[in-house]
Amino acid sequence: MIKNISTLALLIFSGLIFQQTNAQTDQRIYEIIDKVSADSIEADIRKLAGFGTRNTFSDTVSDTRGIGAARRWIKSEFDYLSKNCDNCLDVFYQKDFVTTDDGERIPHDAWVVNVVAIQKGTKYPNRYIIMSGDIDSRASNTMDYKTDAPGANDNASGMAGAMEVARVLSQYEFESSVVYVGLSGEEQGLFGGKGLAKYAKENNWEIIGILNNDMIGNIEGVDGVIDNRTFRIFSEPVPPNETDRERTMRRFYGGEVDGISRQLARYVHKTTKTYMPEMNPMMIYRLDRFGRGGHHRPFNDLGFAGIRIMEAHENYNRQHQDIRTEDGIEYGDVVEGVNFDYAEKLTAVNAINMASLAWAPPAPKNVEIGGIVEPSAKLRWDEVEGDIAGYKIYWRETTEAQWQYSRFVGDVNQFTLDGIVIDNYFFGVAAVGKDEHESVVVFPSGVFR
Ligand SMILES: [Zn+2]
User: Fold this and answer.
1) To the nearest whole percent, how much of the chain has pLDDT over 70?
2) How far is the CA of 172 from the centre of ligand 1 (A)?
3) May I ask which residue range the UniProt record assigns to the signal sequence (predicted)?
4) pLDDT for residue 17
5) Which domains does the chain possess?
6) Distance, CA 155 to ligand 1 centroid (Å)?
7) Is the sign of the CA dihedral 45, 49, 55, 57 positive or negative?
8) Residue 422 CB-half CA count within 13 A
């Protein structure tokens, strides 16, 4: 009898496990991972490197060499994809004029031209999740726009990744809008990112986040370390445009490592671990590499969530270097330095996060927390528009990098976590869609009693 009961319990238990696992994964996400192709990425990187140089100030007239030929080809590829998905992509150039007064690394006045492809969301068309790579490349001297600069890894790899994600995701429909973009002028001062971030602000885009991909194809570090599973997710702790009041409040209520970009980074880390457990994502708690820049920053500057996704081991002999051999060392960012299988994996990381976020409901707004001098923490929030499954409260110990605990609380707008003391954890709330995809976690921005 007892034996039967324990067998039954075991069955129920394993049934629960199965159900739980089943509920947390979406088969379409595995399908997306399978569809991302190293061959396709390789072909695009070879094509981009073949334009000789893609320096932002290089030739714009030639059809075979320079930034003009490169951006026209990228646009034609997006146009081709759009034709194959019943015109699902809105493809256009977004451009800004820069002059030599705009910076010290500008050899002459020029248009900085980004190529943008937007796949409109069916339910929340004004919400945008963006994936970016860069069109431009550079030689040893940034001002030199004539010398060959294939920029195979920096950053044809990120550009090819964004094109590949467009190829795969344009076969699906999403509730929120998905944007694939090639940015220019990165090497001379992040001009393309500034231009698009400004354009987004002027057009009142509600940006879920930008996944900026800059160098996603190198697996051999300059120190000889070879690693094709680890990659880095850079995110700044809190937005730079926060108010004095927000900074003051943080001293009392916390949130030093819980800004919107950090939550986006945690989301990418979690989705990767769920669907691609063979990968080793590293959360890097900084805006970018030490003293260096990337195209997510102009978005962060305007208060948008944005992270940089990139390889773990950089090879400085293959970055920003004229192609040459010196003392037996080969320099130059050539195609031979790119590992296409690794670029495929990081591209898939982007694709599954873009899809999850675009299938998820909007994150709850006005999340507030209470429970001061009480035994239980309380949370409340504004319900999101649309028919959703409900909300999930997350919490973690104050020294933990990732959310450790969570509880799905149903379709309500407040909840009390019995026996969980507010002082000992950080808390956040996410919205959960009908097909289980979740929004980014929102850290409380207010306190109630
Ligand atoms: Zn660079």
Assistant:
1) 95
2) 32
3) 1-23
4) 42
5) 27-359 (3.40.630.10), 365-447 (2.60.40.10)
6) 7
7) negative
8) 20
